[in-house]
Amino acid sequence: MVPGAVAVALLVARTDTYAVLVDGLLAYPTGLDFDLVVRRRPGRPREQFDPEHHWDGPRLEVRFADGRSADNDPRRWPDTSGDQPPDPPLLYQSTRSPAGGHVWLWGLPPPGPLVFACQWPAGKVPPSQAELDAGLVLEAAARAQTLWPGEAPA
Amino acid sequence: MPAWEPPSGYRIPAWLRPPEATVPGIVPVELLLARSDTHAVLVSHLHAYPTGVDFVLTVRRHPGQPDPRRHDPDWHFHIQYHDLRFELRFADGHRVGNHPRRWPRNFETHQPDPPFLYYHGAGGSEERGWHSRHWLWGLPPPGPLAFVCEWPAGDLPASGVEIDAGLVLDAARRAAPVWPTG
């Protein structure tokens, strides 16, 4: 599909050293694709993370206006080995690096505020959040187009 | 093994990357440059900054087509860095393309005159398509801005999409510093 672009970049958290952004929001009929971006302030030294652990990046949670939520903690992801798709919403982060990662939100939000909340203890980033009008996502999803006849929605 | 770290104090030159300490302005378009029965070429993630535009060029294969990596494991590398020709055309007549031969010999240490198009990363998957990330150093002038691609080996003739560069300039004005000074 050709997705619909959501014309917003969100600054979700900021400390003197780090900023966490959500950008590259691309909407499909079945969900929302975006980048979780970590920026380090120019000139600031890197935090010394525990090398015995994988990159411990920001924990991100999306909260819908109807009270449902999902986060990028792999321990909360359902078993997807079966034939049945998981109940939305599901927040699947497919890549993780010091610069952030790529995230897929399975399931579109209902109308109302869509909240992106993050916290990152390893980076000393306290709980912070930003929100956007889910209508922007739904409008973008409605603009998505199939590339070829018979193509799956996303 | 620890991850490679650049030398202390090293900063990637501004003409090779978008500014790190800026929240970009998003250009609200997705561009389908070309489509055949087997492949499609798109431009997405148009992020505008005061100094230029970052975007992603993606090649998608029709789901019904056989995976070309069975015969050529480096297929995606070839298409991203060699076979697929991409060009931006500006209203003032300037053009920039994705072929490294067009880069000045000393571009890594000496600031080139804008416009300058540089790719700075690639990857992807069969599901999402194979993409390469590009940084256009220098904003386009007002007027039409054309994104054109050509892939002779893939039977895609030269084709493209034109947008109003004003969309990019407006988005660049919406960009904001992450850490305000003062």
Sheet with the most strands of chain A? 6 strands, antiparallel
Mean residue pLDDT of chain A: 89
Task: Tell me the CATH topology of chain A.
Answer: Immunoglobulin-like
Strand content of chain A: 35-45%
Indicate the multimeric state.
heterodimer
Question: Pair with the most extensive interface?
Answer: A-B, 28 and 28 residues
What helical percentage do the residues of chain A reach?
under 10%
Helix content of chain B: 10-25%
Q: Please provide the count of β strands of chain A.
A: 10
- CATH architecture annotation of chain A: Sandwich
Structural class of chain A: mainly beta
CATH second-level architecture of chain B:
Sandwich
Q: What is the rounded Rg of chain B?
A: 17 Å
Class of chain A, according to the CATH hierarchy? Mainly Beta
Mean pLDDT of chain B: 86
User: How large a portion of the residues of chain B is in β-strands, by DSSP E?
Assistant: 35-45%
**CATH level 3 topology of chain B:** Immunoglobulin-like
Main traits of this protein?
heterodimer; A: 154 residues; mainly beta; Immunoglobulin-like; six-stranded antiparallel beta sheet; four-stranded antiparallel beta sheet; 1 helix; 6% helix; B: 182 residues; 2 helices; 12 strands; 10% helix
General description of the model:
The complex is a heterodimer of chains A (154) and B (182). Chain A is mainly beta. Chain A has one helix at residues 134-143, and strands at residues 4-5, 10-14, 18-28, 31-40, 59-63, 69-71, 90-93, 100-106, 113-120, 125-133. Chain A has 1 helix and 10 strands; from the N terminus they run ββββββββββα. In chain A, the strands form 2 sheets. In chain A, strands 1, 2, 3, 4, 7 and 8 form a 6-stranded antiparallel sheet that branches. A 4-stranded antiparallel sheet of chain A has the order 6-5-9-10. The termini of chain A are close together. Chain B has helices at 75-83, 165-174, and strands spanning 22-23, 25-26, 31-35, 39-49, 52-61, 85-89, 95-97, 116-125, 129-137, 144-151, 156-164, 176-177. Chain B is mainly beta. The longest helix of chain B has 10 residues, at 165-174. In chain B, strands 2, 3, 4, 5, 8 and 9 form a 6-stranded antiparallel sheet that branches. Chain B has a 4-stranded antiparallel sheet with strand order 7-6-10-11. Chain B has a two-stranded antiparallel sheet with strand order 1-12. Chain B has a single domain, classed as Immunoglobulin-like (Sandwich). Chain B contains 2 helices and 12 strands; from the N terminus they run βββββαββββββαβ. In chain B, strand 4 (39-49) and strand 5 (52-61) form a beta hairpin. The radius of gyration of chain B is 17 Å and the shape is globular. The model of chain B has no long low-confidence stretch (mean pLDDT 86). The A-B interface holds A 2-9, 11, 14, 16, 19, 21, 23-26, 39-42, 51, 98, 145, 147-148, 151-152 and B 2-3, 11, 20-21, 23-30, 32, 35, 37, 40, 42, 44-47, 60, 62-63, 171, 178-179.
